[in-house]
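Lab notebook, bench 4. Continuing the backlog of folding jobs that were queued last week. Each job is logged with the same field layout so the records can be merged later without manual cleanup. Today's entry covers LPS export ABC transporter protein LptC, a 192-residue chain. Filled in by technician R.K.

JOB TYPE: sequence-to-structure
TARGET: LPS export ABC transporter protein LptC
LENGTH: 192
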Amino acid sequence: MKTSLFSFLLLFIIAVTSSCREDADASALKVYDGPMKMTVNIHLLQSDSAIVRFDLKAPKQLEFANGNMEFPEGVEIQIFEKDGQLSTTIRADRGYLLNQENIFRGEGNVQVRNLIKDQKLQSEELFWDQRKKIIYTEKFVTVQDGETLFNGMGLEADETFTNYTLKNPRDSRILMPGEGVNESNKNKPLEK
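JOB STATUS: finished
OUTPUT FIELD FOLLOWS
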């Protein structure tokens, strides 16, 4: 009986001393939601039937656990026609790819250029829905179509910026010599 009382007392002391500890810090238990991978000097090509359809270049890419990607130092996308001809370029100061929706979002100084139709677009935000094959924005946008300049709030276009609809147009005018959509980044390579 003394041994069982002694054993019970020993187990009781061990249980009491081991359960008297500080609570765990709740911030240490938070799930990490930052980037899982970082890649520098990214260059991605997508092709169809051995013809390049689009070409993406960026100095830095961050990839997250949910498949989303961020291009914090800028991104340039080139879109090609079915015959392989370069038709459209998209540049942005920052870019995001929302994986589940298959939507690319550019922000900052976003510029789109249709080389075939001599059309240019400038906005602070632009979305490219790859499933619907459209680009759109609800922000202020400036479009240069040949020698005419249009401004408005919002735009929807096909992904090559060949056909577009300007929402809530504000004004339009014929360009004076030397005027046009700012192409200060046109020939400037993305920083590495």
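OBSERVATION: Confidence is low (pLDDT under 50) at residues 185-192.
SIGNED: R.K.
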